Amino acid sequence: MVNSVLAFLLGAIGWTLAEYVLHRFVFHGTSPKRPGAREHRRHHAEVNYFAPWWQKAIAALVTTAILLPLLSLVAGVQAGSLATLGFIAMYLLYEVLHRRAHTHAPRGRYGRWLRKNHFAHHFADPRLAQGVTTPFWDGIFGTRLAVDRVRVPRRLAMRWLVDGQGEILPPYAADYV
């Protein structure tokens, strides 16, 4: 049982590293022709744009097709399967959290941190804060970004952030301008 939980958790942690590496070196890499880079640039230009679900489904299927046999070969079928499941489960959670950061107001400290960190990446310095859902790897690799208040361009302001006149709503004024 402990080995099963550990395998699942290692897979989930593996996703957080993959998220960081993909975001930093592929989506923000030097070549705009890398897979996903064009979609990611569009996401930065249109803050509520997300790549189509079918592209994400294909990426998840390809990843599973590579990880499952590889991890099963290295760690055994059960541990490899559970690590792959943890990786894919964390990827799905990432997709939900990332979309909600853009489309829903924060709930709790983590939600507030997630949005502020992610929108600092979007609007202050896209070379930093590469860990969308976890700050751990930004700390390890020196890409942490701390800002007091995130300056959000009016045309890119998220609906939950502003009133009908485009002004920051009072609950978010401490974090956004």
Our estimate of the beta-strand percent is under 5%
Task: Outline the biggest β-sheet.
Answer: none
What is the overall number of helices?
A: 6
What ranges have pLDDT less than 50 throughout 5 or more consecutive residues? none
Distance between the termini: 49 Å
- Overall geometry: elongated
Strand segment tally: 0
Structural class estimated from helices and strands: mainly alpha
Q: Please compute the radius of gyration using only Cα atoms.
A: 18 Å
Helical content, roughly?
55-70%
What is the average per-residue confidence, as pLDDT, rounded to a whole number?
91
* Topology pattern, helix = H, strand = E: HHHHHH
Could you explain how this protein is built, in words?
The chain is mainly alpha-helical and 177 residues long. It is 60% helix and 0% strand. It has six helices and no strands. It has helices at 2-27, 37-45, 53-75, 77-103, 108-123, 136-141. The chain is elongated, with a radius of gyration of 18 Å. 20% of the residues are buried. The mean pLDDT is 91.
